């Protein structure tokens, strides 16, 4: 059962959960960004939003996907979509741009500029993060 903050209307797994309380639309995060980034995000959203127990919310700078805990953070940047996911081990090599230990797990990022860069491997990373958290 989830809880919706009455002020910002974000949905959370727990009642009264601490959060940055601000109303932010997904469209506002993509304002002035390339249309290709919207297509990449839409494809990720279409896949991930149907997974059991996934809550999607926005902050002033990113879109957060939660399943018990945050497992995916997508941040629209000027020319790329920064996609952060979590894992038990560090990742390196393309398409990973960095991987660092954070609170007992590894936070890794990929940066996507075109829809072609959204490969099955990237979806595999995201799904493993979902299963982990």
Shape: globular
Our count of helices gives 3
The end-to-end distance, rounded to whole angstroms, is 17 Å
Spatial strand arrangement across the major sheet? 3-4-5-6-8-7
* Spans of at least 5 consecutive residues with low confidence: none
Class from helix and strand fractions: alpha+beta
**Strand fraction band?**
25-35%
Biggest β-sheet description: 6 strands, antiparallel
Task: Report mean pLDDT, rounded to a whole number.
Answer: 91
- Could you give the order of the helices and strands? EEHHEEEEEEH
Q: How large is the radius of gyration?
A: 14 Å
Oligomeric form of this entry? single chain
Number of β-strand runs = 8
Report the helical percentage.
Answer: 10-25%
What is the strand and helix layout of this fold?
Elements: E1 3-4, E2 11-12, H1 26-29, H2 35-48, E3 55-58, E4 63-67, E5 69-76, E6 81-87, E7 96-102, E8 105-112, H3 120-132
Antiparallel strand pairs: 1-2, 3-4, 4-5, 5-6, 6-8, 7-8
Structural commentary:
This protein has 133 residues and is of the alpha+beta class. It has helices at 26-29, 35-48, 120-132, and strands spanning 3-4, 11-12, 55-58, 63-67, 69-76, 81-87, 96-102, 105-112.
Summarize the structure.
The chain is of the alpha+beta class and 133 residues long. Helix content is 23%, strand content 32%. The two termini are 17 Å apart.
List its traits.
single chain; 133 residues; alpha+beta; 6-stranded antiparallel beta sheet; two-stranded antiparallel ribbon; 8 strands; 32% strand
């Amino acid at each position: 059962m989830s809880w919706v903050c009455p002020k910002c209307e974000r949905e959370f797994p727990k009642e009264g959960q601490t959060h940055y309380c601000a109303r932010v639309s997904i469209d506002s995060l993509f304002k002035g960004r390339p249309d290709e980034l919207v297509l990449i995000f839409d494809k990720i959203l279409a896949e991930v939003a149907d997974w059991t127990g996934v809550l999607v919310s926005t902050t002033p700078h990113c879109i957060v996907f939660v399943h018990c805990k945050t497992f995916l953070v997508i941040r629209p940047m000027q020319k790329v979509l920064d996609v952060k996911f979590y894992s038990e081990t560090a990742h390196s090599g393309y398409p990973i741009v960095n991987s660092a230990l954070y609170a007992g797990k590894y936070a890794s990022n990929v940066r996507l500029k075109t829809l072609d860069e959204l490969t099955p491997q990237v979806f595999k990373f995201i799904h493993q993060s979902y299963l982990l958290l």
